[in-house]
Write a structure and sequence with these properties.
- The chain is an alpha+beta fold.
- Helix content is about 25%, strand content about 20%.
- Strand 10 and strand 11 form a beta hairpin.
């Protein structure tokens, strides 16, 4: 089903090297490749002279040094964070200590919904639970520097506190992990929620920026069209789940095997959580039934 999305897996930025990737934007990739980070997490520097940093990245000394070297002789006034996964936000503390810049984000890490009785917080290891912004931004708020203006755009789904930033002067959007060119986004309850993720995609579908700069991988070009691909992909995934349940009740591992053909074994757990996210939405809509609240170990059937 991923074949329906024209993914762009080209990416030539070497770790901790600086590249001007768009007018007024420099990119520096951390050396943390993996099945969830692709070639590495990308930090961005916006403006010249008096600059902002977006997603300073993991708590990695080499990446922090490369980022500080990229802004040598300049003044970092603001640090923006799209969300609080440990590959995006932890270096904010080091960059702030070195520059005195203010840290801005939607808020601390939080769950998209309360934990069910007996449920574990599965993704705590990937979450930056210590992060606290100096300034919490609301949807639509704007922050300006000498050569840039960024507008906060709340985009929950991947995490409850996910936020994109529209760069007005360049007519582009820093999309974090909500929209990427190389892969679809993982939506994993209870940290994320499919209902929120889809609502955020529909929200972005009404925006006009043609270019998205994401947390991983190449820029997303013709971004409004790519967002529509992602919406249709999730709708098709939901249809596949319902088609499988039309053959009889099933648990999540059975559904993963049925609808994720040729899946990288390293991503089986993430696929199961994405199916759980779909199940939460389907149960809430009354299309699917299960015993008790939706869970990774539950059995599901058509309503």
């Amino acid at each position: 089903m991923n074949d329906n999305i024209p993914f762009d897996k080209s990416f030539s930025l070497a770790p901790d090297q600086v590249q001007e990737i768009a007018p007024g934007v420099r990119a520096i990739a951390a050396d943390n490749p993996g099945p969830f980070t692709f070639k590495g997490t990308i930090s961005y520097v916006v403006g010249r002279g008096h600059v902002a940093v977006i997603d300073p990245g993991p708590d990695d000394a080499a990446h922090v040094a490369a980022l500080l070297d990229a802004v040598r002789g300049e003044t970092v006034t603001h640090i923006f964070v799209t969300h609080t996964h440990r590959d995006h936000s932890p270096a904010a503390a080091r960059i702030k200590a070195a520059t005195g810049a203010q840290v801005l984000a939607e808020g601390p890490h939080r769950l998209a919904r309360p934990l069910h009785t007996g449920e574990m917080r599965r993704l705590d290891a990937s979450a930056d639970m210590d992060f606290r912004p100096d300034i919490a931004l609301g949807d639509g708020e704007t922050v300006s520097g000498r050569s840039w203006t960024l507008q906060a755009v709340t985009t929950p789904g991947h995490t409850a506190n996910h936020m994109a930033f529209a760069f007005k002067e360049a007519n582009l959007l820093f999309a974090g992990d909500h929209v990427m060119a190389w892969s679809t986004t993982i939506v994993a309850p209870p940290d994320g929620a499919m209902t929120d993720y889809m609502a955020s995609l529909y929200k972005l579908a009404h925006r006009s920026e043609p270019l998205y700069l994401s947390g991983h991988g190449a820029p997303v070009r013709n971004a409004p069209r790519h967002v529509q691909y992602l919406i249709r992909h999730r709708q098709a995934r939901e249809a596949s789940i319902l088609h499988r349940l039309g053959k009889g009740e099933a648990d999540i591992p059975t559904i993963v095997r049925a609808v994720y053909i040729g899946l990288d074994p390293r991503l089986v757990g993430a696929a199961a959580l994405s199916v759980l996210a779909h199940m939460e939405e389907l149960v809430a809509r009354g299309a699917v039934k299960t015993e008790g609240p939706p869970s990774i170990s539950g059995t599901y059937r058509l309503a």
